[in-house]
Amino acid sequence: MTVRDGNGLSLSPAISAGTQAAGRRLPQLRSRIMLGVVGLSAVLWLLLAFGMVVNARLATRAEVSASFAIAERFAEARIASIGPAGTLEAYRRLVAELSEMRHVSAALSHPLAGPDDDAATGDDDEEEAPRWFTALIENEPIDSLFTLTLDDGSTATLMLAANDADEIAEVWQDFSFILPVTILYGAILSLLSMLLVNLVFARLRRIEDALDRLREGALETRLDDADFAEFGRVTGGFNDLASHLCEEKRLNRNLARRLLDAHEAERRALANDLHDELGPHLFSLRAAVAMLKRKAARADGGDGLETPLHMLEDEVATLQSATRRLLAGLRPMSVGGVPLRDTVEGAVESFRRSSPDTQFACRTETADATFGEVVDLTVYRFVQESVLNALKHGKARHVDVSIALRPGNASCDAVLEATVANDGTMPVASNREGYGLIGIAERVEALGGFATAPGVAGGRTTCRIAIPVRAAGNGAAEGARP
């Protein structure tokens, strides 16, 4: 049994584990994945940069060492060819020849040597690398000294040294191009990964929203085709579950409807039995008492019987009235046989006679339609119980009853709404099974509708029921959801 508030939500829902978990601050998987992707990209870039530096350092060492060895052998050969009495000009030409070689520098030390003879290096057209990069790549210095004897008997010194500046400059050019490209590549991969993660989580959000709607009772909710094959199983399982719940709800509603029909049939049979069996006997008893009164009045000493006979007649009349009220409670004679409008207006008129100090207003928009005995009886009892609560518990002075048909949806032609509003305090519903607003809510739910619990708004206490119906006069729409 479900009694709903003004928004159609259950008044006493069980708190789900998911709702409890939502109250705790949990880390978001999406944020963790994105941080992981960015962190992994940064780590991979650092590893790539480290690998390139190590490889460049080893390659530079190998190439510079090879170039220096060639230059050293060349210098030894040229010095041998010049001989022990070479001229200063010959050694200057040797320095110039060595300066044409890559990755080496040569310098001639002699008192007569000019500044052009110092630190001659190979041509270097590359842009100079930053100091921090040079410190990462450069290796231990390699050099060699040659003592030369000139033709005038003086000596000179030829210093040959490895020079890796040009090689480091070449590596820096490659580095300054490759690393930005790898950064851009990593950023693109990270962006694509984030887009894919967003697609996955967008799908998860759609599933979550669908689960929320399913939990709220929208069993017609279905998931569209999955964007990824991996979600196909989840989508199919969700749709199968929703279809199964729809079928189970339909079966349960049909069962509840049959139980309600059986219950009403039993009440109707009991009312007929009381009317057919007890009614004639009460009538005969009252007729017999009247006959005794007449005979006692003619007989001698009848004055002593007159009072007891009057008392007996009053008790029989009271019993007849109680029986009629009991029959009306079990099954109002007009329900199902006359338009719902007349049944409701008759009930309001009965309250108007019994409570002359209260003002009643009754508005019905159902014309001459009847919606079947079960639906009409449910609306009748709702109006009866709501007005009775307003008078008995709420001490209302103004009561408004409204019956209206609202547009339906794909599952029903229309929705029959009954509303009772009053200026009294909040009524207390009876807890007796089959009576009170709780019992009426069960009947309404069995008919596929819902009952709004009494609530105060604008200084008025209002309660409402809504029952999906087919075309006017064809009863409730089984399995429909308003």
TrEMBL record:
SMART domains: HAMP
Domain of life of the organism encoding this protein: Bacteria
Primary location class: membrane
Protein's cellular compartments: Membrane
A Gene Ontology cellular-component term: membrane
Transmembrane segments: 33-54, 177-201
GO molecular function: phosphorelay sensor kinase activity; protein dimerization activity
Coiled coil region boundaries: 246-273
Keywords: Coiled coil, Kinase, Membrane, Phosphoprotein, Transferase, Transmembrane, Transmembrane helix, Two-component regulatory system
PROSITE patterns assigned: HAMP
Domain called HAMP: residue spans: 198-250
Alphabetical list of InterPro entries matching this protein: HAMP_dom, HATPase_C_sf, Sensor_HK_TwoCompSys, Sig_transdc_His_kin_sub3_dim/P
PANTHER family tied to this protein: NITRATE/NITRITE SENSOR PROTEIN NARX-RELATED, SIGNAL TRANSDUCTION HISTIDINE-PROTEIN KINASE_PHOSPHATASE UHPB
Stated name of the protein: Integral membrane sensor signal transduction histidine kinase
UniProt lineage: Bacteria, Pseudomonadati, Pseudomonadota, Alphaproteobacteria, Hyphomicrobiales
